[in-house]
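Technical note accompanying the year-one report. For the benefit of new consortium partners, we illustrate the data format agreed upon in the data management plan: each record pairs a sequence with a structure-token string. No post-processing was applied to the example shown here.
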Amino acid sequence: MTSLLTFLFAITLLTMTPGFDTALILRTSAASGWKKALATSMGVNAGCMTWGTAVGVGLGALLLASEVAYNILRLAGAAYLLWLGVGLLLKPRSAFQEALPQAKQDGYRRVFMRGFLGNLLNPKVGIFYVSFLPQFIPAGGSVALWSIGMAFTHVVVGTLWNGMLIACTHYFAEKLRKPAVIKIMDRLTGCVFIGFAAKLALAKR
């Protein structure tokens, strides 16, 4: 029980620490509304569950053992974040998605995949899971079941935290519908994403 409470405390702190996922969800909530922000959050959750399952079946250990595998995933993740950031920086919008003819291009499936890929292509999430989760698995317990269970706990905590972020951002978004403000917000978010891309590209194991 002590180990589980320690895990819950640690995973809550991890969830509340600002990162790419937080920036993506806040930006989506402000620019596209709470429903698409929630879809983005579900994508992030799906990435967590994928990592938890991978650790449970032993695939996550590959990142810890293989420099090549880690670097491939790290560079792929950095390239994806860079692509998102440059897109926002060069082509900021002047209105919310609901007011644009091309809104269909940024539907629920697309924002879900942004959250999913942003999480899945970050090898640090995998390294964290493969090095962190086993510490809380009791002797004789099923590694697969405990890893998936703890990943699910992370998802629950993340959903609650993201819901709070989305609710607050949605309130302020109603007051930030000016085209100039939306452009600035997109460009600032693009710079943040590019910064995360550079940090991930230069990261060492």
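Partners are asked to follow this layout when depositing records. The chain has nine helices and no strands.
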